[in-house]
Design a protein that fits this description.
Helices cover 42% and strands 13% of the residues.
Length: 120
């Protein structure tokens, strides 16, 4: 069974902040091409707030280096030229990892298995 995937194309960091405040995305892709220094600073701060979100940054290598200090294990940086196939592959891999069944919060393996087998 496939889960529904939604995509938003947003042009300003303020639009991104508003969207993220409503619901944290599973994957966020940011194109840094044409961003001004102030926008990069805001984007860097925003990426720091997306702890449970896989972040893909696309752009010039010199700009992407600014994100080195704030890099998390959920972050991927891709230099130009834009490679749509590589991005699609990475997003697919990230989404498949997020879709895997997670154990219940109470840690009960038996409860998880019964739920999976619809025995509850």
């Amino acid at each position: 069974m496939r889960s529904r995937v939604e995509a938003l194309v947003l042009e300003t960091i303020e639009q991104v902040r508003e969207a993220v405040s409503r619901q944290a995305p599973g994957v966020a892709i940011f194109d840094t091409a044409g961003c001004f220094k102030g926008e990069i600073n805001h984007l860097e701060n925003l990426c720091g707030t997306l702890a449970k979100t896989a972040v893909i940054l696309v752009g010039d290598g010199a700009v992407l280096e600014r994100f080195e200090a704030s890099a998390t294990e959920n972050e991927l940086r891709l230099s130009n030229p834009l490679d749509p196939e590589l991005i699609a592959e990475k997003v697919g891999a990230l989404l498949s990892l997020k879709m895997e069944e997670k154990p219940s919060e109470d840690g009960s393996l038996e409860k998880d298995l019964k739920g999976f087998l619809r025995l509850q």
